[in-house]
């Protein structure tokens, strides 16, 4: 490892002021300069191998200079700051940085798994689909999983801070290169609210990596001046280090800002690490630039083979020359700038190899004047050197990708390759934009998009600097005019560029060498996808580009095809003998670049991941020694006394309700108020049973199904007035039910005059249940008559109770006389305390979810989601007669008329009791044929709820059993965890089947 010499950074006054920084890579201490990227520092330290390829573990070095880098993926830091799969090209160097190579053991320099490269012919595309079949995948899994993947997931919790922010603007400019900066300046000066986002550490784009002059000075100076002008505009927000990763409908974009990553772990104290921006913009300008394509030739993945533009980046931006003897191989004019920049950096041995048959006289003369060797009409046949480039063999290129037999050997340690440019249209594709093929540029460019988005500069196939400036200014002016804003007097004119800075492409496509006997021409460097893999896919009749992508894995994973997709399309076109436009292209999916999970999560972690709702009487429950669990709401499971466990406490609470009176906090029960002249009509269209006939003051149990006739919720519906309903939903589904009703009103029946309001949290509830419940409530001052004659079961009353407004419903989930007393939320705690005080004379007992579930099971009451599956319909629980009696239509009714929904063999709701009355039924246990299990077995349903009934002193349960309604009295077998339990099928109602206690 021999460090390379530094050269002057173009446009900077001096390198002397750059501070030296120490860092570690694979345990070795290295030294870089302030402003370096990790990739630049690794190159400067002479580190050739930075990683290993995914499948074959071939040695890989830095190839790119930015987001297109596929090889330099490293594990950054460790512990709480541990982050895998980070591009070394996008990591700014900071003091104490620690990075390690990935997918290698013990390290990238000496990787034991590198032996796989010797067996590459046995490991073609999708070999695992064909070879890992016998005896089964699990046999191979134990060997594959430990060596699969790239980086390793962090082992410690992430202690960094993240944030999410919403922002609106009139214009979002994605990309801070020349086109994006001038567009932002014009729009900003016109007064538009502008956001400029760029994924690099500083604005400037390609201007920071090229020897361009703008307005008579180095382009870097123009960038600094322009950025300063933008900073002075109060209506412009600048977001460097911000990766716009997703483009969604209605110009909604998501961006991840690296707020303090560049400061390293030591700089994270009391700082945000990353921020997620959710941007809603009237218009979007994509100035995302272009990505240079690699050439395809044998062993083009060797360390030392780099993109020509990346070499210019390291020279001009970081002052690092990646080699001492360079060969530039290309098929267009633009790459000749690399030869010029290498010569300016002092490199003596430079050779240009051009695959085209002819090159302009100007280019040839420039090379001759500089003493640079030139081979026109040649291409690389092979790369010499295994762990590092030692030279190349070139042959004459008559055309069409075929090479002559004779070779010329060139000694070098750096190969700068370029096959043209691919506009960065990932975000445009995500926005729904279509693409078209440009023959003269040999690339796909934007065509049409329904969203209000413009693509400018290199992203639009305008690769020269004057064109970038012109497009940026014109796009901004058109946007300002579209919004009806007057252009500012200080509007800018296009900056002046030096003619020598502009080179045409004059590209002649060169996809791969066709007559060279090798299967080592790499297309996707990350996933080891070669030309031979595409040939194999073609032979096996994979003609769709999407199928080829998945069969070969080309263009997948972290790279997402940035450097490989277009070459894959070119090879597919050659093999199928059709133009690229006919081959098609894959759709790009978000995120455009990887985004940490912490950024997406933001502060929604731990208890804030899904914040539970607190009961109004939470403190009162806690004072009674309640044991809580998270049900969305933090609710009491049981109230132990002394040394009771959950079983003992639950048994005591159940018997207290059955024999006296209990109190339960039912505040989380969903409450939706449905009002309006068409409220009855609307609910009748939605719910399974008839709600039009429900009279004010009455309640009715109702079920809700989806379009497919599947049960999704249930609850008691109360009619408060002719135009006013109170719809109860389960506490876990009330949010979904509310949104569903809103969707129906907005999308299906917008003509109905109905308003739906979720009032769940506005009312606190104390439910009293048991034989003494009525007697207890009669102790309170109230204008409501609680007598059985005047307040029967399934009725509702509103009035005052204990001096406050109250809504009281007689409905029961326990099977006992029950009153659900609801008061405004602010009185919840007072009501609970008062009920406890007054109820003391009746030995009132608070009971929790566990006791409620036991009593529910005893009564055989359905719990949608627990006693149903994703196919259960109302017919499966015995509601066929109710549906027959309803004359009107409802959501899901047509689906219930399908033969399959009425056929034999469906899983039906039944009651269960253990043949051995003291043997518990296993919840989740499957019904099987016969008493002796023989794996694999067919399941005939499963046990959904079970308990040892404190009331009945036996093991009971509920379940869904195939043809269960016709099997009452039959003994069936339940299999769970290697044991078989004999179970008798009985009616669902185990306790008080006639419901006599409800009407007491």
Task: Characterise the protein shown here.
This protein folds into 5 domains: about 20-130, Ubiquitin-like (UB roll); about 160-290 and about 425-500, FAD/NAD(P)-binding domain (3-Layer(bba) Sandwich); about 295-420, FAD/NAD(P)-binding domain, CATH 3.50.50.60; about 665-855, Gyrase A, domain 2 (2-Layer Sandwich); about 905-1000, Elongation Factor Tu (Ef-tu), domain 3 (Beta Barrel), CATH 2.40.30. It contains 25 helices and 50 strands. The protein has about 1000 residues and is of the alpha+beta class. Helix content is about 20%, strand content about 25%. The N and C termini lie far apart (about 90 Å). The longest helix has 18 residues, at about 465-480. Strands 8, 9, 12, 13, 14, 15 and 28 form a 7-stranded mixed sheet that branches. Strands 41-42-43-40-34-44 form a 6-stranded mixed sheet. Strands 46-49-50-45-48-47 form a 6-stranded antiparallel sheet, with helices on one face. Belongs to the GcvT family. Pfam families: Fer2_4 (PF13510), GCV_T (PF01571), GCV_T_C (PF08669), Pyr_redox_2 (PF07992), SO_alpha_A3 (PF17806). GO terms for molecular function: sarcosine oxidase activity. InterPro entries: 2Fe-2S-bd_N, FAD/NAD-bd_sf, FAD/NAD-binding_dom, GcvT/YgfZ/DmdA, GcvT/YgfZ_C, GcvT_C, GCVT_N, Sarcosine_oxidase_asu. It is an enzyme of class 1 (oxidoreductase).
């Amino acid at each position: 490892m021999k460090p390379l010499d530094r050269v002057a950074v173009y446009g900077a006054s001096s390198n002397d002021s750059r501070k030296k920084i120490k860092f570690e890579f694979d345990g070795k201490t290295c030294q870089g300069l302030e402003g370096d990227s990790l990739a630049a520092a690794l190159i400067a330290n002479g580190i050739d191998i930075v990683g290993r390829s995914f499948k074959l573990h071939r040695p890989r070095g830095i190839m790119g200079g930015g987001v297109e880098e596929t090889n330099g993926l490293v594990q950054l830091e460790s512990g709480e700051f541990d982050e895998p799969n980070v591009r070394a090209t996008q990591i700014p160097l900071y003091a104490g940085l620690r990075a390690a190579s990935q997918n290698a053991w013990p390290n990238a320099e000496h990787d034991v798994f590198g032996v796989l490269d010797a067996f590459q012919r046995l490991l073609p595309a999708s070999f695992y689909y064909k070879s890992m079949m016998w005896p089964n995948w699990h046999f191979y899994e134990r060997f594959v999983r430990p060596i699969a993947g790239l980086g390793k997931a962090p082992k410690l919790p992430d202690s960094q801070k993240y944030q999410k922010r919403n922002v609106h603007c009139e214009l979002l400019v994605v990309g801070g290169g020349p086109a994006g900066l001038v567009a932002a300046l014009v729009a900003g000066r016109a007064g538009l609210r502008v956001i400029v986002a760029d994924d690099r550490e500083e604005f400037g784009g390609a201007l920071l990596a090229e020897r361009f002059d703008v307005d008579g000075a180095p382009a870097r100076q123009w960038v600094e001046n322009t950025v300063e002008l933008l900073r002075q505009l109060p209506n412009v927000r600048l977001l460097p280090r911000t990766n716009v990763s997703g483009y969604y409908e209605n110009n909604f974009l998501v961006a991840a800002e690296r707020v303090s990553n560049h400061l390293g772990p030591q700089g994270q104290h009391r700082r945000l690490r990353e921020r997620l921006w959710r941007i809603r913009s009237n218009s979007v300008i994509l100035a995302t630039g272009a990505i240079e394509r690699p050439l395809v030739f044998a062993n083009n993945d060797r360390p030392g083979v780099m993109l020509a533009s990346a070499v210019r980046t390291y020279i001009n931006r970081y002052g690092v020359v990646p080699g001492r003897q360079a060969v530039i191989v290309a098929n267009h004019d633009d790459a000749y700038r690399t030869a010029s920049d290498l010569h300016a950096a002092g490199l003596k041995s430079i050779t240009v190899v051009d695959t085209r048959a002819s090159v302009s006289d100007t280019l040839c003369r420039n090379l001759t004047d500089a003493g640079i060797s030139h081979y026109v009409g040649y291409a690389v046949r092979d790369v010499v050197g295994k762990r590092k480039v030692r030279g190349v063999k070139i042959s004459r290129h008559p055309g069409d990708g075929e090479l002559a037999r004779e070779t010329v050997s060139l000694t070098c340690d750096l190969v700068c390759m370029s096959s043209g440019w691919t506009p960065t249209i990932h975000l445009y594709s995500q926005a729904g934009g279509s693409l078209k093929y440009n023959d003269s540029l040999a690339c796909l460019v934007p065509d049409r998009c329904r969203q209000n988005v413009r693509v400018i500069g290199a992203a639009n196939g305008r690769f020269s600097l004057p064109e970038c400036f012109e497009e940026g200014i014109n796009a901004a002016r058109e946007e300002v005019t579209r919004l009806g804003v007057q252009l500012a007097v200080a509007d800018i004119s296009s900056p002046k560029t030096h003619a020598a800075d502009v080179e045409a492409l004059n590209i002649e496509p060169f996809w791969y060498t066709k007559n060279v006997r090798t299967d080592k021409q790499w297309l996707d460097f990350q996933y080891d996808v070669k030309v031979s893999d595409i040939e194999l896919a073609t032979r096996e009749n994979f003609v769709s580009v999407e199928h080829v992508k998945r069969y070969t894995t080309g263009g997948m994973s972290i790279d997402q095809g940035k450097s490989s997709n277009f070459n894959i399309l070119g090879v597919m076109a050659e093999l199928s003998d059709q133009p690229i436009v006919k081959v098609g292209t894959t759709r790009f999916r978000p995120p455009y670049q990887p985004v940490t999970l912490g950024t997406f999560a933001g502060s929604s972690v731990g208890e804030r991941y899904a914040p539970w709702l607190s009961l109004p009487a939470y403190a009162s429950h806690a004072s009674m020694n309640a044991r809580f669990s998270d049900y969305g709401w933090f609710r009491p499971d049981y109230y132990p006394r002394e040394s009771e466990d959950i079983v003992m406490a639950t048994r005591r609470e159940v018997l207290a309700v059955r024999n006296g009176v209990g109190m339960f906090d039912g505040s989380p029960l969903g409450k939706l108020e449905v009002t309006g002249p068409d409220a009855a009509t609307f609910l009748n269209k939605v719910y399974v049973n008839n709600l039009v006939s429900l009279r004010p003051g009455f309640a009715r149990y109702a079920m809700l199904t989806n379009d497919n006739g599947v049960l999704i919720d249930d609850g008691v519906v109360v009619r408060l007035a002719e135009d006013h309903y109170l719809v109860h939903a389960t506490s876990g589904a009330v949010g979904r039910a509310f949104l569903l009703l809103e969707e129906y009103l907005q999308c299906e029946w917008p003509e109905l005059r109905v308003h739906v309001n979720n009032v769940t949290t506005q009312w606190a509830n104390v439910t009293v249940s048991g034989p003494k419940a009525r007697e207890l409530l009669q102790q309170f001052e109230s204008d409501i008559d609680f007598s059985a004659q005047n307040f029967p079961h399934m009725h509702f009353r509103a009035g005052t109770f204990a001096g406050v407004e109250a809504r009281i419903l007689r409905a029961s989930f326990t099977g006992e006389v029950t009153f659900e007393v609801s008061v405004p939320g602010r009185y919840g705690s007072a009501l609970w305390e008062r009920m406890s005080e007054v109820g003391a004379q009746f030995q009132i007992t608070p009971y929790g979810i566990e006791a409620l579930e036991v009593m529910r099971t005893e009564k055989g009451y359905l719990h949608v989601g627990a006693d149903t599956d994703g196919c259960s319909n109302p017919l499966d629980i015995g509601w066929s007669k109710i549906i027959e009696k309803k004359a009107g239509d409802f959501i899901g009714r047509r689906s219930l008329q399908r033969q399959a929904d009425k056929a034999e063999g469906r899983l039906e709701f039944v009651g269960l009791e253990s043949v051995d009355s003291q043997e518990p039924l296993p919840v989740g246990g499957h019904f099987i044929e016969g008493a002796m299990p023989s794996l694999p077995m067919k399941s005939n349903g499963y046990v959904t709820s079970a308990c040892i009934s404190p009331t009945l002193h036996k093991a009971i349960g509920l379940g869904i059993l195939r043809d269960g309604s016709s099997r009452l009295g039959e003994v069936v077998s339940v299999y769970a965890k290697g044991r078989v339990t004999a179970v008798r099928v009985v009616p669902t109602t185990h306790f008080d089947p006639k419901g006599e206690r409800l009407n007491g």
